[in-house]
Automatic annotation (TrEMBL):
Residues 1-474 form the Major facilitator superfamily (MFS) profile domain. InterPro entries: MFS, MFS_dom, MFS_trans_sf. PROSITE patterns: MFS (PS50850). This is MFS transporter.
């Protein structure tokens, strides 16, 4: 789980180096990041069901082996297309590992120990996120970009050995069967949607490829919705979206993931290419957002117990809106201090919105729906992350290409400069054109400003909806639940644990910090 936590953030600091060394365009970088998330989001639920049905240890070993092979392939490839393929394989491995990482614990530990075990596993994944940029930065300062994949190999191998020699086999034969058709609908529909968003700036939003991708996505996702709504035991219980408390809280949590994933994709390029920091320095400069998030995640629980989730979620979204609008005023001459300020505020906003929203979403449904609700919430958040990278990255690429001054450049040089910021810097250095580099930096910052305004407005609209229509039950006083990593590690993996652990462990399961959970919630579902 620590390895997978690394992998959620370690890649971002390598994007500028990959753009330069692989000559990757902005849309190829988006696919390098999104391929992992799309495959993971589409296959997480069926992969977890396979483990419940055919053996969790077996599927964990298989998932770690697939992740190992994908990481090895990623380190050894030399073209953007092959890196995208390797990242897809890694997403498949993660889809097997994350849902089962916690679901094995109820069969291994008694009620008194289970909370500590869950806390150790969820803390490992949460710790991997802020450590990812730092470790990645250290590697990139001394080795080539592929080293960020090689670090996965010894840890995945250690995980495989631990599973084989220390982990007993467990399964839940009563779990629902995997529906291959629904799995295909979700994977292909989400892939078509992301393809259309990413390819829009380059091919044109009215091109046949882009419009066809959107039409195919709409058709497949509609077919998925119809099939799942009529299934006796659906993999995704979409009927939960008809309940106001679940829908609005899921929307708030998904929006937070949307903005968080998009910023982690865009910020490293800005810090390295326009500000001139090395990879390790970039990792350090991302820590204020992580720190604000982790602190606020712990501070939010007492506020929810005192005020209820509605004011906390709405206030968190307003804070996120303020941080985004503040960040949109970043100029080429501003120092890092201003960036650190709005990143810290954004981290507070993320946590105050996401953590209570996830808890309230799962707390508002019946105990026998906790597993399906957690799986649906995790899937929506991962889809939000994939769409965030695709949509916000495309918005930056569109704005950057439109505002870059390439007057007087030869055709091929102008095209290279418009493809990516690193490409513009390479052309400027080769032709000794400092004005081109300055224009590229300004155009990229303009694109980020547009993105931040869009994020701020979306956060404000969601805050208004939450304040007006979100129910506000006052939860009974209980110890703080564990903080949730922004990738949904605790919520998502915990949801899988709750789903699969529910049949074999009927008693209430403690939360990730050892505190008693509400009846019917599996490890991490209370979040």
């Amino acid at each position: 789980m620590l390895t997978l936590g690394f992998d959620l953030t370690i890649l971002n600091v390598a994007l500028p180096a990959m753009a330069a060394q692989l000559e990757a365009s902005t849309d190829q970088l988006q696919w390098i990041v999104d391929a992992y998330i799309v495959v993971f989001a589409a296959l997480m639920l069926p992969a977890g069901l396979l483990g419940d049905r055919f053996g969790r240890r077996r599927m964990l070993v298989a998932g770690l082996a697939v992740f190992f092979l994908g990481s090895l392939a990623g380190a050894l490839t030399g073209t953007p297309g092959l890196v995208i393929a390797a990242r897809s394989v890694m997403g498949l491995g993660a889809a097997l590992v994350i849902p089962l990482g916690l679901s094995v614990l109820p069969s291994m530990f008694g009620e008194q120990e289970r909370g500590k075990a869950v806390a150790a596993v969820t803390a490992s994944m949460a710790a991997g996120m802020p450590l990812g940029p730092l470790v990645g930065g250290l590697l990139l300062d001394h080795y080539w970009w592929g080293s960020i994949f090689l670090i996965n190999l010894p840890m995945a191998a250690l995980g495989i050995a631990a599973c084989l020699f220390l982990l007993p086999e467990s399964r839940d034969p009563a779990t629902p069967r995997v529906d291959p058709l629904s799995t295909a609908y979700s994977a292909l529909g989400l892939g078509a949607l992301v393809f259309g968003i990413i390819e829009g700036p380059g091919r044109g939003w009215t091109s046949g490829w882009v419009l066809g991708a959107f039409a195919l996505a709409a058709l497949l996702l509609t077919a998925l919705t119809v099939r799942e709504r009529h299934a006796v035991r659906p993999m995704l219980d979409l009927a939960l979206l008809g309940r106001r408390v679940f829908l609005l809280n899921a929307l708030a949590a998904t929006l937070g993931t949307f903005v968080f994933s998009g910023l982690l994709f865009l910020l490293p390029t800005r810090l390295q290419e326009t500000d001139g920091h090395d990879a390790f320095g970039t990792g350090l400069r991302l820590l204020p957002m992580m720190g604000g998030l982790l602190i606020a995640a712990r501070a939010g629980s007492p506020l929810v117990r005192r005020l209820g989730p509605r004011p906390v979620v709405a206030a968190g979204l307003v804070v996120l809106c303020f941080a985004a609008l503040l960040g949109s005023h970043t100029g080429p001459g501003d120092g890092y201090g201003f960036t650190a300020l709005w990143l810290t505020i954004a981290g507070f906003g993320f946590a105050f919105a996401m953590v209570p929203a996830m808890d309230a979403a799962l707390g508002g449904i019946d105990a026998d729906e906790a597993g399906s609700g957690s799986g649906l919430l995790m899937t929506l958040r991962q889809v939000g992350g994939a769409v965030g990278i695709a949509l916000l990255g495309s918005l930056v690429a569109d704005t950057y290409a439109g505002r870059l001054d390439t007057a007087g450049l030869p055709g091929p040089a102008a095209e290279t400069a418009r493809e990516s910021l690193s490409g513009a810097h390479a052309v400027a250095e080769r032709l000794d054109l400092p004005a081109l580099a300055a224009s590229a930096d300004a155009a990229y910052l303009d694109g980020m400003s547009v993105v931040l305004v869009v994020c701020g407005m979306a956060a404000l609209a969601t805050a208004v909806m939450a304040a007006l229509w979100l129910p506000n039950p006052r939860p009974a006083a209980r110890p703080d639940t564990a903080s949730i990593a922004p990738d949904g590690a605790a919520g998502g993996a915990g949801g899988a644990a709750g789903r699969s652990g529910k049949a074999s462990v009927p008693e209430p399961t403690p939360a990730a910090d050892g505190s008693p959970a509400r009846p019917g919630h599996g490890p991490g579902e209370g979040g």
